């Protein structure tokens, strides 16, 4: 399975729990446009910097994130 799809799918689940795309973006230090891309593009290639910001905001390590999506 495509790694970009797995990453987007995992983050999409977190976005769905937010009040809005804007709220998720503000709480995770990313632009709302990126949030929409994650949701709209099935295999959006999230830059590592963006993924790091999201993981930092959720207080998880990148290695833990990748372990989770690799299960």
From TrEMBL:
<protein>
    <recommendedName>
        <fullName>HTH cro/C1-type domain-containing protein</fullName>
    </recommendedName>
</protein>
<dbReference type="InterPro" id="IPR010982">
    <property type="entry name" value="Lambda_DNA-bd_dom_sf"/>
</dbReference>
<dbReference type="GO" id="GO:0003677">
    <property type="term" value="F:DNA binding"/>
</dbReference>
